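User: Please predict the structure of the protein below. I'd like the answer in structure-token form so I can feed it into my own downstream comparison script.

Assistant: Understood. Taking the following sequence of 227 residues as input:
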Amino acid sequence: MESPFCPADAIKGDADFRLIETFGYIPGQVITRLDLHLARLTASAAHFDIAFDPSAARRSIAAIAGEDPLRCRLTLAADGRVDVTTAPMPQAASQWRFAISQTRLDADDPFLRHKTTRRTLYDQAREALPKGLDEIVFLNNRGELCEGTITNLILTTAENEQLTPPLSSGCLPGIYRQSLLDAGCVTEAVLRPEDLANARQIRLVNSLRGEMQAIWAADGEEFASFA
């Protein structure tokens, strides 16, 4: 019999392992969706048996300051250490163009449900983006739509339903996605490439950037088989 998967054992010896939350800082405004970020971090910390003090994280976040908008990255190490780093806010974009990767995700990979530093596949895909593409969307080993390298996917159907892939397809419980689910604006549903082709609208979303209208470089276009 195979030994059961133990999340704490899976990260032993990985000194670089971190849980990650990324969000925006706007001078004079509260951090948007902060409670959802901390709730996800708390759940992931418990999953990997990492000590986490949300109040300490809030104090670190409260110390963020600056006259310009910032991209903020909160990390939690395996020893419970919290760090916050900042960088300039990425340029806003109302529209992104994407292709589907030939690489397939394992829908049963437990790391897909947690935002961690174990994201080599995603980082490599972003680094290899050719000119004219802003994002790569992955399918799982069952041919179901999952997520982009840094985004979740929302489809508007011909019947005006707002749908997003379920976590069981192998995607991260994104914070912006979760806010839409909590508000009753979207519903989880297993989706496939043909649903992209039939969609009235496609959006790519994340907590830092919000919503981007999305254009699929579909079959017959130059990026259709991007790997």
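That's the full token string. The chain has a mean pLDDT of 92.
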